Amino acid sequence: MILAIDIGNTNIVIGCMEGSRCVFIERLSTVRTKTELEYAIDIKNVLDIYGIHREDLEGGIIASVVPQITKAFQLAAEKILKLDVMIVGAGIKTGLNIRMDNPASLGGDLVVDAVAGIAEYPAPMIIFDMGTATTVSVIDSEKRYQGGMIYPGIQVSLDSLTSKAAQLSGISLEAPEHLIGKNTIECMKSGIIYSSAAAIDGIIDRMKEQMGENLTVIATGGLAKKIIPHCKREIILDDDLLLKGLSILYEKNRKNKR
Fold first, then answer.
1. N or C, where is the chain less crowded by C-beta within 10 Å?
2. CATH for 2-87?
3. Where does substrate bind (predicted)?
4. What pTM does this model have?
């Protein structure tokens, strides 16, 4: 069993993986001012809640899009595990054929998503990762990473709406009772949820047209379960996709550990 960690701009996802099986998954808020010790306490508390002991873990791996805290979190995890913890980045073998202008610019989280997607599902495919930003990864029939999209995440869009309009208060991301809202809150909920679902459906249609073939569509990320049930296209919801990818990369690179 390994400790798998995904550091995002809003949340840090922590889970334990046994092969492709996710033992548990939890989310912490990303706080850039925390110290190494504070993050170590967070990790220990999560492991304690699930009854996971240090001796149960053979190692750890981290994907991060927040470089300011990556090293501190790595040291915190190593403090708890008493083992080396890998970082997805330079020197990590992925086996992914990236066809972008600058392959090194591809975020670690997108690399991990793609590795897991290729291992778990038939190509060609597109992967929606719905977090602070919504990212779209396109993988062709030869399992090559062709590129994708990045656009504002659902919560970012909602926060922008409420912050710019004095009469609109903050709301939760839950589907309203009616598609056609009957009050301001319902209108906002309907607008953000169904416009997001429609955007995903539209992107899928355009990607299929661009690629000229049917595509497997996978969605993951903290906000996916809020939106995907309202989409009309066939989409596989996989909450554990990124942790599965981290587990695959750990196994692929374990021989390189010192």
1. C
2. 3.30.420.40
3. 107-110, 184
4. 0.88
